[in-house]
Predict the structure.
Amino acid sequence: MQDSAVVAAVVAGDTDGFGAAYDQYAASLYGYCHRVLPGPEAAEAVLDTFLIATAKLDGLRDPDRLGSPAQGYLLVAPARLVLTSKSGTPASGFIRLTALNGPVPHYTVRVAADPGRVKVVPADGSLPVNGTVEVTVTVTSKVALTTHVVVEPGNLTVTVVYKLKPQPAPKPSPPPPA
């Protein structure tokens, strides 16, 4: 199927059109994602891309399906954040929130567990249509941990994995003098 025919079929809501789009573009999209993300996350990003495209097109055909056109929804990336540092030294990374299909008048970001060790900034706010914000996630811990950051609206979850850098191996003792 040619690009123009694929686009026409997708816009018309034809499931064969989505299948053709996936068959035609998923491999190259996966190749790109795989260069910037670990394997499982690359495959998830490809799937998310097609799911979001389907939802947006369905929303354009039936605005009631995604709620009021005046109210947007959030996209959160990445779905997994891995941080590494020395024991007790803070490590930070970012998650990006994007408002799609309209503004998001109020969002919140909270830590599901270990709030004393994990901080998020900003923890709330609003976004205009297609607006984005980077949320800084900082972990300070003496032990490795895995927790979740939950973004509302949408009950979207980001897994945060904190790993400790291995301690350097001790230097060998010099041999005794002969």
